[in-house]
Each structure stands twice: as structure tokens, then as C-alpha cells.
Automatic annotation (TrEMBL):
<keyword id="KW-0560">Oxidoreductase</keyword>
<dbReference type="InterPro" id="IPR036249">
    <property type="entry name" value="Thioredoxin-like_sf"/>
</dbReference>
<protein>
    <submittedName>
        <fullName>Uncharacterized protein</fullName>
    </submittedName>
</protein>
<keyword id="KW-0809">Transit peptide</keyword>
<comment type="function">
    <text>Putative mitochondrial redox protein which could be involved in the reduction of small toxic molecules.</text>
</comment>
<keyword id="KW-0496">Mitochondrion</keyword>
<comment type="similarity">
    <text>Belongs to the FMP46 family.</text>
</comment>
<dbReference type="Pfam" id="PF07955">
    <property type="entry name" value="DUF1687"/>
</dbReference>
<dbReference type="InterPro" id="IPR012882">
    <property type="entry name" value="Fmp46"/>
</dbReference>
Length: 135
């Protein structure tokens, strides 16, 4: 019988390689991904696709719009330091002015399939996000 296979959940980590907290989050995600992909036991989590976007790259305006939809517009100043609101953040990204990369919060983990994000280096929140990915 033919059946459709579930696609992998896509997680994107906006990462700063020079930052120890960001490297710890990346290690957690890589370990979880390897453990999930090697699991033969159906009780274990499926693997996820991990996309790592290293500084100086920043989220696209569409990605930022989605992230703000996930976490709420009140978090815009955390995600893009110095932004007064969604419109201000979008304009800053679209113009991609000097210093924009330093203004973007890293680490920033986004679960696109399930509409969630973890802001900063909260290791417990990252592990919880991974643990609650749909099987």
C-alpha cells in the first residue's frame, strides 16, 4: 500500500559562531537531530531539518514577519534591537543598513512548521521545543 511520508519539521537557527551561548544551542540541536535520525524505535522523535543562518546574514523581511506572528509584535525590540515596532523593523531589514546584523538577536530558533520561536539562549526552551515536535 502506498502512503505519504511525513516531511521533516524545519528549524532555523539564526546563529552567531563567536557567541558561546549560540554555540551551545547549536550543539543541543545537532545532538537532538542526530539522535532523532538514528532512532529505529518508533517511540523516539523523528529527525528535523536544521538550517543554520550564520551572522552576518539576517532574517528576510518575510521571515521576520512570520517570526513576529509567532511570538507577538511586542517582542520586536528583543528580536531586532532598537526597533520601535513591526514597521520600523521591516524598514530596517529592507534597507539592510550598516550594523543591522549586530542588531539581530542570536541565537534565535524558529520552528516554521509549528509556528514557534525561542528567543535567546534558553536551553530548556530549546529542548522543550525539540521534545514537543510532532512525531
Amino acid at each position: 500500500m502506498f502512503r505519504f511520508h511525513k516531511t521533516l519539521d524545519v528549524l532555523t537557527l539564526f546563529h552567531a559562531p563567536a557567541s558561546a551561548p549560540s554555540r551551545r544551542i547549536l550543539d543541543i540541536l545537532e545532538t537532538a537531530s542526530v539522535a532523532g535520525s538514528s532512532a529505529n524505535d518508533s517511540k523516539k522523535k523523528l529527525a528535523f531539518e536544521l538550517e543554520v543562518v550564520e551572522a552576518p546574514l539576517v532574517p528576510t523581511p518575510d521571515q521576520l514577519r512570520s517570526i513576529l506572528d509567532f511570538v507577538g509584535e511586542n517582542k520586536v525590540g528583543i528580536i531586532l534591537k532598537g526597533s520601535g515596532g513591526k514597521r520600523d523593523a521591516m524598514k530596517a531589514l529592507e534597507m539592510a543598513g550598516p550594523g543591522i546584523s549586530e542588531r539581530v538577536l542570536r541565537p534565535l530558533l524558529v520552528d516554521w512548521n509549528n509556528g514557534r520561536a525561542v528567543l535567546g539562549a534558553d536551553e530548556k526552551a530549546v529542548q522543550s521545543l525539540v521534545d514537543t515536535l510532532p512525531k
